[in-house]
Structures are given as C-alpha cells and as structure tokens.
Amino acid sequence: MTPTIKDVAKKAGVSIATVSLVISNHSRISTPTKNKVLKTIKELNYYPSRSAKGLVTKTTRNIGFILTDDHFLRTEPFYSNIFLGTEFVTRGSDYYVLLATINTNFSKEDSLPRFLLERSVDGVIIAGKVPLLFLEKLSKCKIPKVFVDYFPPSDDHYVVLIDNIKGGLIATQHLIDYGHKEIAFIGGDITHPSISDRLIGYKQALERNSITINSNNIITDEDYPARQNGYNAAQKLLTRNSNITAIFTCNDAMAIGVMQYCVDSGIKIPDNISLIGFDDVEADLLLNPPLTTIRVPKVEMGSEAMKLMVNMLREKSVASVKKILVPVELIIRNSTKKI
Predict the structure, then answer these.
(1) What pLDDT does residue 312 have?
(2) 8, 15, 164, 318: which could form a disulfide with 197 (CB 3.0–4.6 Å)?
(3) Which residue from 286, 288, 95 is spatially nearest to 275, judged by alpha carbons?
(4) CATH number, span 164-296
(5) Domain with CATH 1.10.260.40 in the chain
(6) CA–CA separation, 305 vs 105, rounded Å?
(7) Which residues lie closer than 8 Å to 136 by C-beta, 6 or more apart?
(8) Considering the domain 62-162+299-327 in this protein, what is its CATH number?
(9) 58, 71, 59: which is closest to 99 by C-alpha?
C-alpha cells in the first residue's frame, strides 16, 4: 500500500500539519523535528502530494507552456524540442509543465487555456508568435510570463531569443564565401521578429561585401514558413530571376519546399543552385542532398526559459536578466557548393 501523510505523521510522532510544514521547508519547524520527519519520509518512501504542498505554499508548482496550433502542427519538431527543454529542467524537481495550444486566429470569443482560467499554474512560457488578442486577455491574469522565440511589441518582458540577425548574416556570408552573388532570400510571416531579423542579417552580409540588394531576389509574401509555401516562393522567385545561384530560406521547412520545387523543375542542388536553411531539424539529414543550415539550440532554449521562470518564482522579485540570446552555428552539408 502506498504510504500517506498520515502514516508519516504517525511513525514520526508528529501532527499532519507538522509534516506539511516540513515538506514545504517552513522556518517554524525546529531542526531536530525536521530531520526526524525527513528521515521517516525516506524510510517509508513517501512522495508528498502536490495538493498538500500547495495548501501550505499557496502555489501549484505547475508551469504552463502555450503555443498556437500552427506552431505545434506545422513547424516540424522545432517547438516540440523547446518544450522538451523545459521538461528536462523540471525533471527531478517539484515543478511540472502543462502543455496547451491556442487557436492560431485567436478571437475575442476564444477562451484562455483552462489551466489559466482555473489558476492551476504559477507562470506561463509562451513559445513562438501568438495573436495580440490572446496577449491582451492574458495580461489580465497578472501571471509571470517568459517568451521564447518571440517578443511582443512592448519591451518589458522576459524573453529567450535566437541570435537571428547573426544567423542570417553567417548563412548569407557562407554563400558569399562560396562565390555566390545572386543570392535570394525566402521567408514566410515576415512580421515575426525572428524572420524579419534573419532578413536583416541577409541584407547586412550583402552590404558588407558590397553586393547590391535586389528586391527581385527577396520573397516575403508567404503567410507562414511552411514547406508548401517554400515551394510556392521558389516558383515565384525563379520565374522572376533565372540568374539566382543561391537561396537562403528563413527556416528548414521552407528549404525543403524549395528543394522539392527544384526536383520537380529539373534544377539540381547544389550544382545549379546552392541552398541553405535555418533551424537544423532532424529531417535535414534525410534529404538528398543533406541540407546546409544554421543550427538553433532548441532544447537549450526551452531549458533557459524554464530556468528563468523558476528563478522568477523562487525569488518572487524582478530577475536581473530579462533577455537571453542563444547563439547559432553554421552546419555545412551538401546542399551548398563553391562556384
């Protein structure tokens, strides 16, 4: 039979309330009593219930993780790995992560995730771009928030971001170093700060190398950085300018779409066009040829976000670090070639 808090209290010769205070590390309990209760907990192999702890600490020990339906379904395993990173931090601790998705087109009629309405989380981590209407509703909850791979219009937030400008710069510089000058950029949802920053990095690399920025080489009118939109953008781009020798896509999903268009059109990668993506998702190694890309430490982003959240909750004050910028890395495979 699984031991209960009553069993611990009985064997230790104390009240149930005393056991609860020990579990919550309350200062009212003397050291000898605390040690006696902790020894009994260990001997009985007792695991305190979260509800019992919550009654004393006035906390749930739950952290919410929120993203849109699109980010969960259409971004390969990108945000799944970020979620995994949050779970790694809580593993072995007394925190739990609760996952919820919201409508990509969140409206006034839509409700907040149930764990917010029921006040069953102490804070929330928001991954990726979310609708402003959702943020307006969320602001009324007065709950600690950490944003990952996105930041709202206001600067006063705790955020974990990719070094997107540098990533865009080193991706484009890699193509320039390989001798390319007719270099295109393909992006979807250009209003997303991460995507727009990658475009900034692309332009900076061209400017640093005295290469004219050609608007015909930039496609940013796709509404989402998905495979099909990468296919569509490649069709538009190469119909508009057949002199393109290299393409930098804002993420790997769009790069895979570009690659499929090239296969369907008889364009060889990298012999005719060099291609580089951004993210380094697992599928990149299975492509033919394997995709050159910018590696994003996705699991580490989730870990940093959870550490930031836990520190905020434990300290119960404003954290000294409000913005964490994670570094990126160029991964050279076979989809790019010197000319």
Answers:
(1) 87
(2) 164
(3) 288
(4) 3.40.50.2300
(5) 5-57
(6) 25
(7) none
(8) 3.40.50.2300
(9) 71
* Contact by Cβ (8 Å): 148, 82: yes
Q: Looking up tokens 């907990």, which residue turns up?
A: 41
In 10 A of CB 89, how many CB atoms?
A: 20
For residue 57, list its beta bridge partners.
none
What pLDDT does residue 116 have? Answer: 92
3-state secondary structure of 295: strand
pLDDT for residue 114? 92
Question: Which numeric CATH code is attached to 5-57?
Answer: 1.10.260.40
Amino acid (1-letter code) at residue 86:
T
Residues 6+ apart with CB under 8 A from 327: 163, 166, 297
Q: What is the pLDDT of residue 71?
A: 85
Write out the H or E segment, with its range, that includes residue 283.
Answer: none
Rounded to whole angstroms, how far apart are CA atoms 7 and 32?
A: 19
* Rounded distance between C-alpha atoms, residue 159 and residue 125, angstroms: 9
* 252/75 Cα distance (integer angstroms): 9
- The per-residue b/e assignment along 52-64, b for 16 or more CB within 10 angstroms, e otherwise, is bbbeebebbbbbb
The pLDDT score that the predictor gives to residue 56 is 54
Q: What is the length of the chain?
A: 339
Distance CA 137, CA 65 (A): 16
Tell me where in the chain the CATH 3.40.50.2300 domain(s) lie.
62-162+299-327, 164-296
Q: Where are the alpha helices (DSSP H) in 91-224?
A: 114-117, 132-139, 164-177, 193-208
CA geometry: angle 121, 125, 129, nearest 5 deg: 135
DSSP assignment of 67-119, as one string?
Answer: EEHHHHHHSTTHHHHHHHHHHHHHTTSS-EEEEEEE-TT--TTSPPPHHHHTT
Whole-angstrom Cα distance, residue 55 to residue 32? 24
Residues in the chain where the model's pLDDT stays below 50 = none
| Residue 188, amino acid | G
Q: Can you spell out the DSSP letters for 251-319? A: SHHHHHHHHHHHHHHT--TTTT-EEE-SB--GGGGGSSSPPBEEE--HHHHHHHHHHHHHHHHHHTS--
